[in-house]
Design brief:
The protein is α/β, with parallel strands linked by helices. It is 40% helix and 16% strand. β4, α2 and β5 form a beta-alpha-beta unit. The protein is globular, with a radius of gyration of 17 Å. The two termini are 21 Å apart.
């Protein structure tokens, strides 16, 4: 299956790696090390060379407890980098945003996918996305980043996440967004306890069977920190184990910080998947 990301094809017949490029000064995993545009561009090119099939660029932190940034600030962080990168990257750029203005400006600057952790639920986002022609990743979140980890509660987390995503697909379809432009993401860590996250991953195949490509972000997340009792910079092994479980169950895009290692891991899984 081939996804058209604003003119750049993304082949999802095998699981692919999405490299994370954080342009936030407070970015929780890389401490804002790639904040300067030149270094961001070098980092993106390195991730492509390491085998990333798409680069996800974000200018607003969505980590638990993070504060919102203004439209102007977010645009100032992401647009110059997208403008510089789009012409020189072979792989598509995804814009991690929930703001309609940023979606429009980013796609105009060359982004080929929208990654919205609010699943187009913020005012104007659905209309903005419908007016563009790039694929959209719809992610599930319970609550808001500022408070979502305080008291996450579900009767049946898997059923509720799947139901939410199906409802958002219907909402998108009604707004004129073709189904083949949509990807689904259960939103690991977004208003979920450790057990919720583990249960969602164990049964990820249920979401995969809905038929839309599934994207997952597990890299360095607190579920790994909690199980292993490791700080952020020591979560690679845990991240690879979870990426493997997701790819094994049919996830098509794995969003990661450590591209080279993750590409190796999913290549091995693909080798096993490809034999009888
Ligand atoms: C995810 C994400 C983050 C995720 C999608 C982090 C922006 C926190 N996580 N987008 N974004 N899925 N689609 O740990 O799981 O990277 S930010």
């Amino acid at each position: 299956m081939l996804l058209d990301c604003g003119g750049k094809p993304l082949d999802l017949s095998e699981p692919r790696i999405m490299g994370i490029l954080n342009l936030t000064p407070d970015s929780f995993s890389d401490g804002g090390r790639f904040n300067a545009p030149d270094r961001a561009i070098a980092q993106a090119l390195q991730m492509q060379a390491d085998g990333a099939a798409i680069i996800d660029i974000g200018g607003e932190s969505t980590r638990p407890g993070a504060e919102a940034v203004s439209i102007e600030e977010e645009l100032a962080r992401v647009i110059p980098v997208i403008e510089a990168l789009a012409p020189v990257l072979d792989v598509p750029i995804s814009i991690d945003t929930s703001k309609p203005e940023v979606m429009q400006a980013a796609v105009a600057a060359g982004a080929g996918m929208i990654n919205d952790v609010y699943a187009l639920c913020r005012p104007g986002a659905l209309e903005a996305a419908a007016g563009l022609s790039v694929p959209i990743c719809l992610m599930h979140m319970q609550g808001e980043p500022r408070s979502m980890q305080q008291q996450p509660q579900y009767q049946d987390v898997l059923a509720e996440v799947a139901e939410f995503l199906r409802a958002q697909v219907a909402r998108c379809t009604a707004a004129g967004i073709a189904g083949h432009r949509l990807l689904l993401d259960p939103g690991f860590g977004f208003g979920k306890s450790l057990v919720h996250n583990l249960h969602l991953l164990k049964h990820l195949d249920v979401l995969v069977r809905d038929g839309l490509p599934v994207l997952v972000g597990l890299s360095r997340k607190s579920m790994i920190g909690t199980v292993l009792d490791r700080p952020l910079e020591q979560r690679l092994s845990g991240s690879l184990a979870l990426a493997a479980l997701a790819a094994w169950q049919g996830a098509r895009i794995i969003r990661v910080h450590d591209v080279r290692e993750s590409v190796d891991a999913i290549k091995m899984i693909q080798a096993v998947c490809a034999v009888e």
